[in-house]
Design brief:
Blueprint (H helix, E strand, L loop, with lengths): L9 E10 L2 E10 L5 E5 L6 H8 L7 E6 L2 E2 L5 H7 E4 L11 H6 L14 H13 L15 H14 L4 E5 L7 H16 L3 E5 L3 H7 L2 E6 L2 E6 L1 H4 L2 H8 L1 E7 L6 E8 L4
Parallel strand pairs: 3-8, 3-9, 6-7, 7-8
Antiparallel strand pairs: 1-2, 1-4, 4-5, 9-10, 11-12
């Protein structure tokens, strides 16, 4: 159950973002493919998380515009943006003394008002999120008693419960073991197949190639290239991004690129 409230587009037009006086993103143009999973990849410090924060209007641009359905995202009321776009940041702070289900309930806040109280649809959204993130057995557990991976799944479930057409995820599998990484990536694909447009920062290049429909490769605050993983991922691109030599072979099951014979050749 993913409540889609119509197609919602998100793009950056000549976007420039700074931290202090340091320019991180400069004159960047990007449109997220509708109903697809976009993976943003590149070396540490290249601006991936900054870009995601800019797209979600947390980071205000010094130049250019982020467009939500063709309109400057900063001109929307905050609650309206929250009904269209959910962001899971890289660093989350769990409130004290609440359990998993209570955290997920926060995802319904954009749908509440003084005139619109808790409804059956809100509980259905929470139940769906609990099931999707495999948290039914943990819904009554306090967050501070969970492992790092379990807490990460709870935060992802909160984003799912927000029921937005757009979902931005900053390293959604960073705290997870291999099994739960695969579960999360498969969940992300399932959500996109149900209509969500998803952008995620991913460090694991083979996983990005396997689970994303669209790759945005970044370096030094700029987009080096973008497109279908099978078309754009080459050993020349891997060398340019990460300073490693490798060979690429297709995954026998999916055809997505796999890196082999990896060798570090220079420092970035």
């Amino acid at each position: 159950m993913v409540d889609q409230t119509g197609t919602v587009s998100l793009s950056a037009d000549n976007l420039t973002l700074q931290h202090g006086k340091t320019t991180i993103i400069e004159s960047l143009n990007l449109t997220l493919p509708l109903g697809k999973v976009t993976a943003i990849v590149g070396p540490n410090g290249c601006g991936k998380s900054t870009l995601l924060n800019g797209l979600s209007r947390i980071h205000h641009p010094i130049g250019g515009t982020v467009l939500l359905n063709g309109k400057d995202i900063h001109k929307y009321p905050s609650k309206e943006v929250a009904r269209k776009l959910a962001l899971l940041p890289q660093d989350t702070i769990s409130p004290d003394g609440i359990n998993v289900e209570e955290l997920i309930r926060f995802g319904r806040h954009p749908h509440q008002s003084t005139m619109k109280q808790w409804k059956m649809s809100d509980q259905e959204a929470i139940d769906y999120a609990l099931n999707a993130a495999d948290l039914n057995g943990l819904k009554d557990r306090l967050l501070n008693t969970l492992s790092g991976g379990q807490r990460q799944r709870a935060w992802i479930a909160m984003s799912i419960a927000q029921e937005t057409p757009l979902l931005l995820l900053d390293e959604p599998t960073s705290a997870l073991d291999l099994g739960h990484q695969i579960e999360v990536f498969e969940l992300i694909k399932e959500l996109s197949e149900e209509g969500k447009t998803i952008a995620m920062v991913v460090h694991d290049l083979p996983s990005a190639c396997r689970y994303a429909d669209h790759i945005v490769a970044m370096k030094d605050g700029k987009i080096v290239t973008q497109g279908c993983p099978k078309k754009i991922m080459t050993k020349e691109l891997v060398l340019a991004l990460y300073g490693i030599e490798c060979d690429l072979i297709p995954d026998p099951m999916t055809g997505s690129p796999i890196l082999i014979n990896i060798k570090r050749v220079k420092s970035l």
